[in-house]
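Entry 12.
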Amino acid sequence: MNIYPKGMYVKEPRESAPEFVKGSISVKVADLHEWLLANQGLANDAGYINFDILSGDKGWYTKVNDFKPKQQNHPIPENHGVDNNVDTSDVPF
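Predicted 3D structure (tokens):
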């Protein structure tokens, strides 16, 4: 689902900008504040909402990055992977 923040605007770097300037972001504080309050549920477990900066027919824009990695479910054995039935009688230490 595409979700676009209200009050955040991305622009390409100005022609005279040094090469290390990749673009700029303008924030209309009241609009973004209102949008953030209304969309707190989009925040990840650490409290962040991540945005992608994209380019399209009408210029650059931001979109909520809602990617969530799949949970890796690797059960840990009760013995924590230790095999207690190993013959250690010939171990030199």
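Annotation: The chain has a mean pLDDT of 87. The CA atoms of residues 52 and 63 lie 5 Å apart.
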